Amino acid sequence: MKFDLTFTITAVIAVCALIVPVLTTLINNHYQVRLKQLELENRHQEDLINHKRDLFKALDIL
Fold it and tell me: I need a labelling partner for 56 at 20 to 30 A (CA). Which of 2, 13, 20, 40 fits?
C-alpha cells in the first residue's frame, strides 16, 4: 500500500484545521470562567467591606 504524500499532508492540515479552533475555544472559555469567578469574588468582598463600613457609621464608631 503506497501513501500519496500530497494526500497525507492535506489530511493532516484538514484535521488540524478542525481541532485547533475547538481547542482555542475551550481554553478561552476556561479562562473566561475563571476571570468571571474572580470578578464575582472581588465584588463580594467589596460589598462586605461596604456593609461593615455602613454598620460602623450607623453605630457612630468611625
Answer: 40
* Helix-strand-coil split of the chain, %, nearest 5: 85, 0, 15
Per-residue pLDDT, 61: 65
Of the pLDDT bands very low, low, confident and very high (cuts 50, 70, 90), residue 60 is: confident
CA distance 10 to 17: 10
* Terminal-residue alpha carbon distance, the chain: 86
Which whole-number Å values give the CA distances from 15 to 9, 10, 18, 23, in the listed order?
A: 10, 9, 5, 12
